[in-house]
C-alpha cells in the first residue's frame, strides 16, 4: 500500500503482465465502526465503498454481523415451502416429510453453520 491510498499489489503486477480487471466489480468493505474509512484506488480509478458484501453465498456487513443472512435464509425456506404447498396436488404428511429434508433443510443447515 502506498502512502497515498493506492493499492499497487495487483494493480502494478496487472499492468506489467497486461491483465485486465473489471474495476466496477471491486468494492471496499470497511470492517468495524472505528474504521477511518479511507478511500482506495486501483490504478487511476477510485474503488467504491460498500456497507455489506456477499462472498461464497454469505452476506456479511461492516460489523461482521450475519443477521441479514439469517433473515434471507428464513425467507428462502418459507418461499420454498410455499412453492411446495402451491405446486403439489397431494399435501399428505408423507409427501411433505419427503420434500422438506431435500428442499428446505439444506438452506437452514447452511445458515446454522454460520
TrEMBL record:
Superkingdom: Eukaryota
Which PANTHER family does its entry note? Answer: REVERSE TRANSCRIPTASE DOMAIN-CONTAINING PROTEIN
Q: This protein is called what?
A: Rna-directed dna polymerase from mobile element jockey-like
